[in-house]
Design a protein that fits this description.
Oligomer: homodimer
Strand order of the largest sheet of chain A: 4-14-13-12-11-10-6-5
Helix content of chain A: 40-55%
Strand content of chain A: 15-25%
Shape of chain A: globular
């Protein structure tokens, strides 16, 4: 089997687990956050920078790489790891999410999806078989089944028909998978925010027997309470000996809440996207270092932070770079935000090992929410900009 | 004295010298090329990357830092070295060149120059005293006198009046310099492309006795032959025990030709600017790796090159990054081009030491010019884009 997940420890107080994912490109400690390298590069960073901040697995996007530079070219280059010079593990999504969120004029049939490229308007067709062919060519350690990610809100009737098609597509993906010995194919549970549909989807997808399971169709605009409820319904239906991956989730509080509800893997563009707007994570919420109030602030972004940006540069310098549109500014904020999430997961793993995750979660969330609330109400300097949608 | 230049060896066949510049931030082997960090950052690179490619001195721009973030802020931060986290030496220009090339509505008087900011149109005044005040605040190891850089072509009468004002300004700069023990102030020879004016300017500026001398007002559009002629007239008039700096010059062939004519220091934005258009230096001329012909070329930019980009990435990957507008692409091309020039200077120094610089120059220029000519006439793949003005 290409990928094996090993359970190390269960949390007595929650669904959380401490585990270890064995892949052809190294061992990944879980729970884990995976930085996103959409176009075969984590935006603004070199692979060494991603590695040095502690990431050992990254995500890349099938839809984007299929359109540009093309999966045949990546295969010719020796696969995605070689092409982009990344020594760690890689997970590729199936392109389903982007087909439904980025492309134009899409038409869904039982066979697959016709769509037009967001780059040049050219016509394309993705099916379960085609998505797997692309993912086999890219050669990631973990590949995802081709699913339909329904928007929120979504009618019950449509969500049901969609999840049933996603199940049929998952079976076709499994049949089409040509490299099961070197790439693990994960199934994806859908069902929008309907408890009965989540149960139906989980049962159907688990029945197909995948080496890992993802929960898709969440963090697409629904209230957090609904997301938590869906996790609480879905996770117990997934086999306890397989890794569980919550797709497109990556704000600090969502990571903590996801682990609490039994999630082992996360990915999100949020840390790198807000970094490019000059917004950074702190233990007490988000701060926009681009703001004028930091012009003469010679402190690091976060005091005591061990990231490259905080060890070497002041808020004043980083703000100067952002105002002057110098790329190093985007890079320093990206490094800080990714290191913040990678360290958060390190702390969560340590708390799980020490049997004090419940306490860690309580303290982290209390500090985070109080700070975010204070910024929202103006009680605290440095209001963050409005939250961006947390797309994959 | 803040800076001392030590002569190591003279070339028997030319005006070239092998030397060593002792500064408060390290020893610089000369001849040397200085990467440009206009806004307190070498565009797209971290200080570690600039250091790792072998640079030990960089240039930064007084005009830009004065306007943004402001020299007071940089002084508060502990000076430019601390602000930008650069452990090596720094040279700042005086702002003269940018005032005459970038700003709007400038008005020159004997006292100084009134101009409007290219960023926000605000009104400013730079004089010799103000430029030195700013350079003292920035704290570079080498600072430049405030001069007028005349455009090309330029009337003899105007060039003469301008160089005489530049001389008077140089004397005022020297009088205003508040930190001669930690910062070396270099004088600048002007005189456009008139032999008599270059002689007059050199005599006047040398008479003021500076620890180093720059040649300004060249590489501003004049034919190469004229630049060479002006160097051949000016260099012998400069004291043999002081470093000589040719401002704004940085194409590979100009570096070789400049060293041949007795120049010790160079700077130019060319390597990083063309990198951002996907154009890279090769021993046989420039190549645009962004071109379609490199889509499936899995060779490094330059075979055998020891730079980070060539050791780890293919032309195909770098082209993909450039097409996808990913910043890592600009960074890899910038690293290659800067390493190319830094290595060129290493090779020149080694050739000088071995007494074979004449041979090195002949071989380098013959290969370079043949390749450039072949690309121009289409005899060779990969036509470079039209040459950009080689501004500082």
């Amino acid at each position: 089997m290409a990928v094996r997940w090993e359970l190390i420890q269960r949390d007595p107080a929650s669904m959380a687990r401490r585990g270890r994912l064995h892949t052809p490109h190294g061992v990944i400690e879980t729970p884990v956050f995976m930085p996103v390298g959409t176009q075969a590069t984590v935006k603004t960073l070199s692979p060494e920078e991603v590695w040095d901040l502690g990431a050992r697995i990254i995500l890349s996007n099938t839809y984007h790489l299929y359109l540009r530079p093309g999966h045949d070219l990546v295969r010719e280059a020796g696969g995605l790891h070689t092409f982009m010079n990344w020594p760690g593990a890689i997970l590729t999504d199936s392109g389903g999410f982007q087909v439904f969120s980025l492309s134009d004029l899409r038409k869904i049939t039982e066979e697959g999806v016709h769509f037009r490229s967001h780059i040049d308007g050219s016509s394309h067709f993705l099916s379960p078989e085609k998505a797997i062919e692309i993912e086999n060519a890219l050669g990631a350690d973990i590949i995802m089944a081709f699913d339909e990610c329904t928007p929120w809100p979504c009618e019950h009737d449509y969500a049901k028909r969609s999840l049933e098609r996603t199940t049929r597509w998952a079976a076709r993906c499994k049949a089409a998978h040509a490299r099961p010995d070197s790439q693990a194919l994960f199934g994806i549970v859908q069902g929008s925010t309907y408890a009965d549909l989540r149960r139906q989807s989980a049962a159907e997808i688990v029945d197909l027997d995948f080496p890992g399971y993802a929960i898709g169709g969440l963090s697409v605009g629904e209230p957090k309470e609904l997301m938590h409820e869906m996790l609480e319904i879905t996770v117990p239906l997934l086999p306890g000996d397989r890794p569980r991956y919550l797709m497109g989730v990556g704000s600090p509080e969502d990571l903590v809440e996801g682990v609490w509800r039994g999630i082992d893997m996360f990915d999100c563009v949020l840390p790198t996207r807000i970094a490019r707007h000059g917004t950074v994570f702190l233990p007490d919420g988000k701060m926009t270092v681009r703001n004028a109030e930091f012009a003469r602030d010679f402190m690091p972004i976060q005091e005591g932070c061990d990231c490259y940006a905080c060890r070497n540069y002041s808020r004043a310098y980083i703000r100067h770079l952002l105002k002057a549109e110098e790329m190093l500014g985007l890079r320093l904020c990206s490094i800080h935000n990714l290191r913040f999430l990678v360290r958060l997961m390190e702390e969560i793993r340590a708390a799980l090992e020490a049997g004090r995750f419940a306490e860690y979660r309580r303290e982290f969330l209390s500090r985070w929410h109080a700070g975010e609330e204070a910024r929202r109400t103006g009680a605290k300097a440095g209001p963050a900009e409005p939250a961006l949608p947390e797309n994959r």
